Amino acid sequence: MLMQVHISLSGENHMRISWITQIPTPATVYYGTISGNYTSSANGDTNVYHYFKYLSGEIHDVVVGPLKPNTLYYYRCGINTSREFSFRTPPARFPIKFAVVGDLGQTEWTNSTLKHIAQSNYDVLLLPGDLSYADLYQPLWDNFGYLVEPLASMRPWMVTAGNHEIERIKGIHRHRFTSYNARWVMPYEESGSPSNLFYSFQVAGVHVIMLGSYVEFGPDSDQYSWLQADLRKVDRTKTPWLVAVVHAPWYNSNHDHQLEYESLGMKEVMEDVFYRARVDVVFAGHVHAYERFVRVYKDRTNECGPMYITSGGGGNHEGLARRFKNPRPEISAFREASFGHGQFSVVNETHAVWTWHRNGDNIAVAADEVVLRSLASVPTCRIS
Ligand SMILES: [Fe+2]
Hints:
binds fe (ii) ion, 5 helices, 24 strands
C-alpha cells in the first residue's frame, strides 16, 4: 500500500518526501533523529493525474524541516503503516559527493548500476534525464518507483527530464511531461522558476542548475530569462562551484544523437551564458555511453570553459551507444560505451575529483579520473 518513496532537496535545510498510495491517506510525514521516535511532523499535498484511461494512485508531497546537516533522520509516511524509512541530509560544507547517472531505465543493467551507486556513500544523486523508460505505459512509472525506492528514499535524488519523459500522444494526450511532473516534483518554486522542468538548488557550497532540454530555451523563453536571473543570484564566494545538468549533450563524439536541435540549439543559445558565468562542469545523458571532454568553449580547449561530461549509461533497455566517431576529437579526453555511473566529489572550495565507474568493475575501481580546479579559484578566469 505504501510505495515509491523518494526524496529531494527543497530549499535550504528542507527535504521533500514524495510517495504514492493506492488508497486515500493523509499527506503527513512523521520524522525525528531516533528510530521510532518521531518528534516532528509536516503536512503537504496530494495529487492524482490522468493519462488516457489510466488514473494514477494518490501522489503525496510533503516538505519537512528545518533539518540539521549531515544527520540521519527516520521517517514514516501517512498513517497506519509500520514501514520506517531513513535519510541522511547532505553536509553543510565540503566535502560532498554527488552520484551522476542518466538514462537509467529498469533492466538488469539498471540493477547493477544501482548496486554500485548504493556502495558509493554519495550525498546527492543527479539524474540528467530519461528515468523510467515507461514510454507511455504508465504502470512502468510505478515499477520504476519501486525499483529506485531503496536508494531514493535514503538520499535526495535531483532529476531533470529527458525525451522519454515527454509522453505526449497526438490526438490522445496533448500535455507533455504529465507523469514526470506529477511524480517527480523538484524545488522549482523554491528557486524562483515557473516550471518543474528547470530549477536550481544549492548544497554545501555547490550551486546546481538543472535545465530542461525539451522546454523552450531561446533568448525569449522563460527558461532563458530564469537562467539569467538565477546566475545573477550565485555568489561564488559562498558557492564556489557551479554545476549545470542537461539531458541532450552539447558536446558528443558518439554516432548517436548527432545534430539534434535540443543539443545544438541549446548550445548555440546558452554556451556563452555558461562561459561568462564560469560554469565548472556540465553533466548530460541521452547518449548511452560515457564521454568526458576537456574544458571547452566553442569547440576548442579553453581553460575557463566548462568540462562537459556525458553519463548516459545508467542501463536502460535500448542498450549501449557503441559507435564513436573517428578519429577522436582532440577535445574528447575519454570515451567508452559501457554501463556505469560517475561520482563528483567536491573536496573543498578549490578542488574536486570526477571518477567514472563501470558496472563491470569493482566499485573501488575508477576507469576514468580527473581532478578539477574550481574556476572561481583560477585568477585568470575571474569573472570580469
Ligand atoms: Fe534521451
